[in-house]
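Sequence in, structure out.
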Amino acid sequence: MRALIDTNVLLDYFGRREPFFSACEKLCAMQAFGDIELWAAPQSYADVFHILRKTISSADLQSAFIESLNFINVCKVSHEEVAEASRRSWNDYENCLIALCAENIDADYLLTRDEDGFQAAKMPVFSPAEFFAMLESEHGLVYDVQLL
């Protein structure tokens, strides 16, 4: 299973923002068990840096980014994706680029807390919490993370 995680999910993870951080921890547990491949768009890292640099030092953020590359793959955005996003004329250009990244990696899911911004996405879109509810109801899979 392959999922692209949107910028707001990365913000929740790196910023340890509750009540959303626990779902991010579950995604990391899924990845550790080999049950999911996590992907992100490169511009999401830039956006996370821009937003969180006011509360987390540059050095700490960049260190966390490096560590995350052990379990989050980063897709490529090229000339073609920039042009295609412009042709699709979504209201939110950034969301369109993220959806194109998801398409390019053949993502099974796009995980975001901005589901309305991805109504034209070509794969199922869930919030992380809804994703785990779906896994439990449809597949009987439960991921529980005990925070230390």
